[in-house]
Amino acid sequence: MTFQKASVPGARVRSNRALRTARACAGRAAARAVRQRFAPLYSATKAALHSYTVNLRHTLKATPVRVVELMPPAVATERAGPGQAHGADLAEFCDTVFPLLDGSRMEVGFGPTATPGFTEQRAAEQRAFDAMSDRFDVPVYRPDGLVEG
């Protein structure tokens, strides 16, 4: 049994009149796209989360669930330590990205992760994924919550 088959059924959405759409949001830093030499494990975990998110989105595409990936740049928070905050302003980041997490976009970036160059790089990666995704028979969820494939 794959990890995806084992993990998604508990979160699957069954079609009914009360539920029209649902959103699953995964957050990851820009380190997935721009590797950080000083943080190889951090960069690798972000790349893994991105890969899983793209595959989960593909698996759930025929259901009412929309998988949205939040791609924040460095955001100035207290986690950096006293006097060490760097990055985008937290309030500006939240005010900008939260309204965009409505499921109408597959990915939501901010600042350097919302530039045309970054967006085109992601679009090219998505086109490559789409072109190769049907090469193998993998399970996908139907709108009624049952697994197909």
Number of strands: 5
The overall pLDDT average reads 79
Q: Summarize the biggest pleated sheet.
A: 3 strands, parallel
Distance between the termini: 13 Å
Radius of gyration: 17 Å
What is the approximate shape? globular
Strand content: 5-15%
Strand order of the largest sheet: 1-2-3
State the low-pLDDT regions, or none: 1-19
Report the order of strands and helices. HEHEHEHEE
Helix content: 25-40%
| Oligomer designation | single chain
Helix-and-strand structural type: alpha/beta
Number of helices: 4
Describe the structure.
The protein has 149 residues and is an alpha/beta fold. It is 34% helix and 13% strand. It has four helices and five strands; from the N terminus they run H-E-H-E-H-E-H-E-E. It has helices at 3-7, 40-59, 90-97, 116-132, and strands at residues 22-27, 65-71, 107-109, 140-141, 147-148. The strands form two sheets. Strands 1-2-3 form a three-stranded parallel sheet, with helices on one face. It has a two-stranded antiparallel ribbon with strand order 4-5. Strand 1, helix 2 and strand 2 form a beta-alpha-beta unit. The radius of gyration is 17 Å and the shape is globular. The relative contact order is 0.18. Mean pLDDT is 79; it is low at 1-19.
